[in-house]
Amino acid sequence: MAAATETCSAAPLQDALHAYGIQAWHIGRLWNFTLGLCVLVFSAVVGAFLFALWRAPRSDAQTPPDLSSLERPERRIHRTVAWAAGLATLGLLALLAADVFTSRALGRLPLQDAVNIELIGHQWWWEARYLDPDANRQFTTANELHIPVGRPVIVTLRSDDVIHTLWVPNLHGKRDMIPGRTATMQFRADQPGIYRGQCAEFCGLEHAMMALLVEAEPNAQYEAWAARQRQPAPALDAGPAGDAARRGRALFLAHSCARCHTINGTGATAAMGPDLTHLAGRKTIAAGMLPNDAGHLASWIRDPQTLKPGVYMPVNRMRPDELQDLLAYLETLK
Ligand code: CUA
Predict the structure, then answer these.
(1) What is the extent of the structural domain holding 301?
(2) Which residue of 12, 96, 216, 247 pairs with 189 in a disulfide if CB–CB is 3.0 to 4.6 A?
(3) Residue 320 neighbours by CB distance under 10 Å
């Protein structure tokens, strides 16, 4: 596998030329073959062109045109063109065969013990539902997937509004998310790491700001993360320590926040925006756009329209002390 010696780095990778999963490796091999063949064809065409220039008769503006070739049969040229056409056809057939073999290889990923995720595209964020036959074990998160290394992942793709495209180049190719249809994508991460995905279909004003982080980690770590996600929002500290957070929670529920977001374990159950039950555990906010820290969160809550114009989150006017309370509450959502 390519890049086997590279270690997991903190900066997310988004690079189709470095495979960290078997599916991306198959696609990378197809790309290398296509590139190699096209380089050969290009070199041959340029070579033939230079050869023709080199052996063309020297002439100037006064030289009369040489029309003799119109009467003379040119067997050699016919032969050369026939060979070139035959080779070009063989090249195209080779590309077609490589394409078919790659598709078949992609379809052969073993799917036992797969993690099932339903991924829904929204303008401009990703909703992820981790499916389970036992409904009590299902949970919802947003904009960041965690997956276990070495286990297959089956992602069912849907869209809530317009066409989006899932693309996490280090793990797999692209797949469209079309309103009213479902598609699936199967992949496996073979090394731990954080892989950045990007919506790859123009879907409106903030298309470029629609990123998805995929964090591949050892199975035990993944299971621990999933177990935390299944829990409702943690209880707030008793006594004065939790006062600010309690005021923040009351504000969240009374303010417009609860009309769009869910926080399990509270009265907030709306699904317009991302589920915030475990917001504090995420690395980024606004679909991979900003780091998830108090400063960025405060700017985002106050005025998302300046940071991400057109986003469906409204401007929130609140006093600085209210904002501090709200931040204190959001920080508890681990
Ligand atoms: Cu979603 Cu582009």
Answers:
(1) 240-330
(2) 216
(3) 9
Q: For ligand 1, atom 1, name the residue with the nearest CA.
A: 164
Quick: pLDDT tens for 252-299: 999 889 999 999 999 899 989 999 999 999 999 999 999 999 999 999
Nearest-atom index, ligand 1, CA of 200: 2
Atom of ligand 1 nearest to the CA of 177: 1
Distance 209 CA to ligand 1 centre (A): 8
7 within domain boundaries: no
Pocket around ligand 1 at a 6 A CB cut-off: 121, 124, 164, 199, 201-203, 207, 210
| Cα dihedral: 200, 206, 208, 209 (round 10) | -110
Distance CA 161, CA 159 (A): 6
Contact of 301 with 323, CB cutoff 8 Å: yes
Report how far ligand 1's centroid is from the alpha carbon of 187 (Å).
21
Share of the chain above pLDDT 90, in %: 82
Residues 101 and 44 occupy one common structural domain: yes
**Is 278 contained in some domain?**
yes
Rounded distance from Cα 167 to ligand 1 centre (Å): 10
- Provide the number of structural domains found in the chain: 3
Residue 115: which of 97, 99, 128 has the closest Cα?
A: 128
pLDDT score of 7 more than 70: no
Do 154 and 214 have their domain in common?
yes
Q: How many angstroms separate the CA atoms of 174 and 167, rounded?
A: 5
- Kindly give the pairing relationship between strand 193-198 and strand 139-142: unpaired
